[in-house]
């Protein structure tokens, strides 16, 4: 039989079978890039770093959590007093407002944040080795990337420490299944120490400018590091360090308060166009990468609106001269006719964004925030007058109404502190700051002013839950969110916050 | 190749058959339960180190069967140390010394027939009554740096929300004990409430709140707002005699028409209402006929009858939180910190500018300055049927001769049975109980046709007061006749503006009986069969004027000035 088959055919069969064998034996994944293939060139390092930013702006990583940029808002605002619920508010959000948080509430799922942290860890672990593999990759370029990864990791841990208190501290990358490990919680103090350490290491490595405005505001610069340092030190009650960090920004000559003489121009430049001279670090959403705020604030079934107190008490109205308004109130923070949260939704003072235009940047830090942080630290150091000067500078730019001027005496430390809290509410409304502001001031000096939180919660919960909520808030552990139930099931070393047991 | 041997095949086949046959005989484990989750009793039995005594109590009570069967329950399970504390209190050596009836009482008081998690715990009673027949009260208590849920002010929840097959188990640190005293007994024992107690006895209400009414479920529970002697003394009443002299006008306090009787009845509500329930509603019926108590939460203070009446603020009476919310067999007892009684109020006229409400006042750039459209659901005291429609506030100005409206503004509310408003509901300002004439004041207008002539647009409307239709219908397309004020009033019309143009019309729609001094609802309903309605309905004011008062004066100017001629 064999003579019927010619030699060329036999050779062809042999070649074909061998070639297919080769593919068959190759165990590389078909749909991804392995570590051995990656981390070879500087372009790959860059794309890994950009991946961190993409994760910050990305959608929810799973169905039982939200986008991290949504968590920044929810964690910073929902437990405070400037948000009100609507008929479309989810049960889980209502539970948070009512101080009824259970560990099964998806709002407390930190998964997206830890994913960002892991991307940072991956860059920190693998990027240095690229120096040997790619001759065109320089130490200076590596330093820049290391600074970005360390700073974002620090920012994420700062969010976690403020929101959950004690959290697991993971500073090594998880790049394969073998490296999945169970870790116990570190104390809030240890996490914050790591944050300070990371920022300290990042500061000398970070660049001053990338050469274009969008990168300067959308990526980590030395000034971003300083801004986070100021916030962290203020939280840790290290006022000298906070003031020093603020001074690095105020003396940089690169930032200033935007002109507030036209309310609409001010709003458009700062919040609609973004990347202004007042901004320090903001998430760069765009038409291809929309932010998650539209369904939260704008559709007919909007989940959250501004509380009536925002216009009634925080900004107030001039009943004599209605044209005399705080530019930061109606048409900037809220649309007062129906209490829509406007900052992330407005395309101008009066027109709203459409769904496909919902790409307002998320501002982490801006110059006004830095000035008010400095005022807060100065006040704690006993320089009440200097603090008040800063507050009045912010007020005059925002054209705050006389009715909101608490006019404390410079020596009245708590009075000035209250005035700063109120001014931060006006200036930084709905920028994810309010809850952290209240908690930071309440917990200062071993919870000396817990009354701030108790008064606040007495106004936000329904009347038939008021007394329960107030008493729950007396327990300091209740100020931090519980660990999500799924995390507890998968990591047996985690211990639930005792308030939620 | 070898040929297949068919003989061998036979043997193989038989062997195979045998194997299959025997394997069938092997016992297959059949799962009979749909779940391996333990039910409540099973769960308690499975934790003998914590619940052995309570499980034993359930066993003696004979309820272990149904607590292990299908259902939905919530049980507050006292742990072993809790039961030991309880046994020591009642001087029993062990749980076996308890009778079956006693254990049944204990179990029933810890058991509710629904699933409740801690997130449903509020400041007051749980939404369901226990199987024992008394409500449990929840709160949060703070001790040693830790806040915990507190049940009935007797026990703390140690572990909450343990889910079992037929409900939730909440571990508590003390056995709950039902109230054994009636409200009357609680007042009786309180040395600070002697005057109020004497008033209760004299008016016969003492017995009402002392015995459990098993025949009339509407009188099963009561809430009493008792006044302390100090509260009465603050109002100059230092003895029961002084109280009786002040109020008892018939000399017989047992007479329901006697003012002392009404005074006491006004302090009793026919339901079990804890403070959380009181602040959750704005008004509550009392036993005094048609007298309501209004309630508000001011900061953390619970205030009774804190109202603004006819422009005057009347400060309320505070209920003291620490001494209130006391459970009793017949209901709840609260302590009022000041003296209060139903107020004798004379009916007063309400000239209600319908375009003046909280939400528009919050927009100073628009209120009495510019037009504004309110989206559906954004106005608290005005509701309408279609979510696609808006409520249009209209500002016409002070010198607009086509729109000489009172205060220069009105609501522009297109009505009809098309896409326009089918109905609108308005919540009135507080009206004192009494008889009133109801006037709807508007600017008449026809989209097509001429005012005062037949034909053209029609906009007939039925007005409802608290759901009851008024005696006359009206139409926004009709203008008032041009005759003298007296003649007009006889026909049910009036000129309510200083401006004399005929289209500024006030239409009498009926006499209303206001039974309770409270806020009420007025509805305007477009009558469907007549035409498609009109886009021009300019509702300016609603006048609610006591029947014995002047009906067509005062008149209103565009700046709101009242003119009495």
Question: Could you write a compact summary of the structure shown?
Answer:
The complex is a heterodimer of chains A (501) and B (565). With 501 residues, chain A is mainly α. Chain A has helices at 7-25, 42-57, 68-77, 91-97, 111-133, 139-164, 188-205, 213-218, 222-235, 239-250, 263-273, 293-297, 308-315, 367-380, 384-398, 413-427, 434-447, 451-460, 466-474, 485-490, and strands at residues 83-85, 167-168, 185-186, 279-283, 304-306, 334-335, 340-341, 362-366.
Walk me through this protein's architecture.
The complex is a heterodimer of chains A (501) and B (565). By secondary structure, chain A is mainly α. Helices cover 51% and strands 5% of the residues of chain A. Chain A has 20 helices and 8 strands. Chain A has helices at residues 7-25, 42-57, 68-77, 91-97, 111-133, 139-164, 188-205, 213-218, 222-235, 239-250, 263-273, 293-297, 308-315, 367-380, 384-398, 413-427, 434-447, 451-460, 466-474, 485-490; strands spanning 83-85, 167-168, 185-186, 279-283, 304-306, 334-335, 340-341, 362-366. In chain A, the strands form 4 sheets. Chain A has a two-stranded antiparallel sheet. A two-stranded antiparallel sheet of chain A has the order 2-3. The radius of gyration of chain A is 26 Å and the shape is globular. The mean pLDDT of chain A is 90. By secondary structure, chain B is an alpha+beta fold. Chain B has 3 domains: 40-172, FAS1 domain; 183-336, FAS1 domain, CATH 2.30.180; 350-563, Galactose-binding domain-like (Jelly Rolls, Sandwich). Chain B has 14 helices and 31 strands. The longest helix of chain B has 20 residues, at 6-25. The A-B interface holds A 87, 95, 98, 100, 102, 311-312, 317-319, 322-323, 336-338, 458, 462-478, 498-499, 501 and B 117-119, 121-124, 138-142, 145-147, 159, 161, 275-277, 279-280, 297, 299-300, 321, 362-365, 369, 372, 374-375, 377-378.
